[in-house]
Amino acid sequence: MIELFDDPREDKKSDRPAPQSLVKFRQIYQDALAGAGEEKNNAQRAKGKFTARERLSYLLDQDSFFEIKSLVESNCHDFGVADKHIKGDGVITGFGRINGRPVAIFAQDFPQLGGSLGLAHAKKIADIMDKALEAKIPVIGLLDSGGARIQEGVESLNGYGEIFYRNVKASGKIPQISVILGPCAGGAAYSPALTDFIFMVEGISHMFITGPGAVKAATGEEVDFDTLGGSRPHSEKSGVCHFVAKSEQDCFRQVRELLSFLPQNNEEKAPSETTTDIVDRPVHVLERVCEMDPKKAFRIHHVIWRLADDYGFFEIHQNFAKNVVTGFIRLGGEVVGVIANNPACLGGALDSDASDKAARFIRFLNAFNIPILTLVDTGGYLPGVAQEHGGIIRHGAKLLYAYAEATVPKVTLVLRKAYGGAYIAMGSKYLRGDFNFAFPSAEIAVMGPRGAVEILYSRDLKKETDEQKKEELKQKMTQDYSDKFAAPYQAASNGSIDEIIEPAEARSKIINALRILKNKRDPKQHCQCNTGNIPL
After folding, report:
1. pLDDT over 70 for what percent of the chain?
2. Beta-ladder partners of 325
3. Most Cβ neighbours (<10 Å): which of 2, 111, 223, 368?
4. Is 186 a catalytic residue?
5. How many Cβ atoms from other residues are within 10 Å of residue 124's Cβ?
6. When comparing pLDDT for 376 and 292, which is higher?
7. How far apart are CA 342 and CA 532, in angstroms?
């Protein structure tokens, strides 16, 4: 019998030569770590981009990355792909920690075959997504890819199908985050669109189904990469992108901050934080809202900041559909999702884009057990031929559906105006708002008092021929109508509003309401019927 160990208490490096099997393994592993080699990695850096491994080191907690499937290679035998023996097949997969909490992650390596997706590449991503769903932890994709690997033909397309299927399977169960750090072309763009949040970096991130060359060939339009699919058009026009960063480091900081607001899965609640900001801190500045003309514009951010713990607000979709503001705050240390009309843009009116933006965020909050705070200051749905023909009825209905479907705690505060269908849509009592509050300045009615008077008293106004007297009469009628039908007291008297509150007490009222509702539902019961966070 061979004694393998002299003393079981000793465990130190031996001076003996390493076994040949270890020497071979270490060389193969070092080749895998080197990726495409220093020359191609330097070419990546010359474009102002990090390598895949550098990105992982910036995003994850120090020394927390645990890699798997590092030696996977392509089985493709055509065009010399297999002969290159590319370890990892252009994507790094594994697990790590962010803010001390586990995540699953994959990072495409552009210097290796342009980060293109072949079948082995796709299987690695699919495997890490499966493991993330089993472990009930978020999955993050760092995407930098030219798209499907044409050398592998339809198999590469099948690989995308495997990933799309898992995106849908995991939707609403674990947070999915896509970080675009280079090209994301063709079928590659659809996987991020199925995830919950998309990050892009100015100057280096591009998403499109067909590139500039294909666009010119098909339509004759000449367009560059940034104009077609850069961070600006996708964050401002298409709404595909939720966050834009100035640099990769800034992007990773934003990802880490976003995750600090999210639970690990749909069976948990979002992480609490201690705060020195007292619950009953009076917010006297909100009394100014009561003094303002309902038609006067102001940024709703000022209200959100003053309500939030330590004045902190993490905004989502900042550059898209600015007439509605969405994001995360903490109230009494607990995470809350905010949906707010923004009078500084379109008077806070709801249009198609704003409805889509708010509805999808509400569905995310509902999937992941995050309470909803709605701040209302809207004159209604945006009128116009373009809106009607653009499907405002269809898009607006998504917002109604999202609020009615949500079973998380819902608290609504009407600041100034809440007219017509938009009043109903913005978390009203009849879409099952749990606590609905209003400031004394609130106007809740079918339409604005002046417009209502012009319809209801049109004959009386026509009889008055003197324009000055007609205007004075109209003002008196408007005030009378407002006092009788639009003031919040009628809504409070019939139960549409639970309470009219002092603006200075808004923070404490909202926090106390949310604390009452903290056990409103059993998350495990909810997850059994969870249908996912479908892109709207």
Report:
1. 85
2. 340
3. 368
4. yes
5. 25
6. 376
7. 28
Output the average pLDDT for the chain: 88
Catalytic choice (126, 185, 422, 491): 422
Higher local confidence (pLDDT), 48 or 254: 254
Per annotation, catalytic residue among 153, 333, 390, 421: 421
185 counts as catalytic: no
Superfamily for 20-259?
2-enoyl-CoA Hydratase; Chain A, domain 1 (3.90.226.10)
Do the beta carbons of residue 449 and residue 478 sit within 8 Å? yes
CA neighbor of 426 nearest in space, from 390, 391, 447, 396 = 396
- Select which of 88, 146, 187, 433 is catalytic: 187
φ, ψ dihedrals at 45, nearest 5°? -65, -35
The predicted pLDDT at position 10 comes to 61
DSSP H/E element including 366: helix 352-367
Average pLDDT over residues 73-92: 69
Is residue 237 within 8 A of residue 207, CB to CB? The reply is no
**Neighbour-count burial for 137-152, b at 16+ CB within 10 Å, e otherwise:** bbbbbbbbbbbbbebb
Does residue 187 carry a catalytic annotation? yes
Dist CA 185 CA 370 (whole Å): 33
For residues 387 and 468, which has the higher predicted lDDT (pLDDT)?
Answer: 387
CATH superfamily ID and name for 284-442+487-527: 2-enoyl-CoA Hydratase; Chain A, domain 1 (3.90.226.10)
For the cut 90, the answer to whether the pLDDT of residue 378 exceeds it is yes
Tens digits of per-residue pLDDT, 257-271?
999 999 999 999 999
DSSP one-letter string for 431-456: GT-SEEEE-TT-EEESS-HHHHHHHH
Q: Is the dihedral of CA 18, 22, 24, 25 positive or negative?
A: negative
Question: Token pair for residue 37?
Answer: 């080699």
pLDDT of residue 101: 98
- Look at residue 304 and tell me whether its pLDDT is greater than 90: yes
The pairing of strands 206-208 and 314-316 is unpaired
- Establish whether 203 is a catalytic residue: no
Q: Name the residue ranges covered by the structural domains of the chain.
A: 20-259, 284-442+487-527, 448-486
